[in-house]
Amino acid sequence: MKKSPAIIDRRFSVAPMLDWTDRHCRYFLRLLSKHTLLYTEMVTTGALIHGKGDYLAFNEEEHPVALQLGGSDPADMARCAVMAQERGYDEVNINVGCPSDRVKNGRFGACLMANPDAVAACVTEMQKSVDIPVTVKCRIGIDDMDEFADFARFIDIVAEGGCEIFIVHARKAWLQGLSPKENREIPPLNYPRVYQLKLAHPHLHISLNGGIKTLEQTQSHLEHIDGVMMGREVYANPYLLAEVDHTIFESRATVPSREQIVVKMQEYINRQTEAGFRPWHVARHMLGLFQGQTGGKIWRRYLSQNGTGKTPDPDLLFNALQQVKQAQHDVLEFNRS
Fold this sequence. Notes:
Blueprint: E1 12-14, H1 23-32, E2 37-44, H2 45-50, E3 65-70, H3 74-87, E4 91-96, H4 101-105, H5 116-129, E5 134-139, H6 148-160, E6 165-169, H7 180-183, H8 191-200, E7 205-209, H9 215-221, E8 227-230, H10 232-236, H11 244-247, H12 258-271, H13 280-283, H14 296-306, H15 316-336
Parallel strand pairs: 1-2, 1-8, 2-3, 3-4, 4-5, 5-6, 6-7, 7-8
């Protein structure tokens, strides 16, 4: 059954990050920002069609939330898009940016930039099957195909297939010789190339990803393009999301305190009933919540030492918070003396 497409404000989003942006992480991030668009980890069509796990599970509170798909067979991609829409996702995104060998061997990810016709065919078949937006996340180039003309040709062909929304990591990917981590750091950032793409395609919605660390940088980029996607900086310092609604979306939403977030996340932990669940499955996403604050190291240490093992602390977040508050109290008393 088709559903009406959601109206999503795409000015700010959090990148899909493999092994990180699972449903527990997304629930946590949603408490910090009501309007930020969240993405799942990449899920392959093979896992969805043939796997035994529930790879589409998410919390209703996560909306707006998008599923990122890895694949290149149009029929399989369309089938998985239907599955995503039926489960209630607000968007399906095609991964054309991941440079790992495993992804390349599966014929998806950044290697597809050399085959824009295949990406366009996927977009076309998916859009025939669903009403929710079908978007593409890509690089500015791969290997020696890194001139603007190569990039523009890829975008032109995929846009002709029906895609109107692109998220561009402003680095090219080297498919030979660099690891995925190195591909996030070594190829130089080229923001002007993404700006140039927007100027050449004003009718397309273009978001920028790569190396963005502050909301001030975000606002500067938004003078040239339509949206900004932030990844690892959000994960390392998640509380910066608490200012996104007010700063980027101009919302009057109340900024939650770190303590309020901890209380809600402890309640979330207490509600989990699935077999094999451990508080660490949630707490690992929260290590950076007190980044730059008094007690931040104590917070990280307590979670790491008491969230794992055979007998993890069931009140992990509450007890870690008490340690932080004591440290902050001690510093305050010291400064008064």
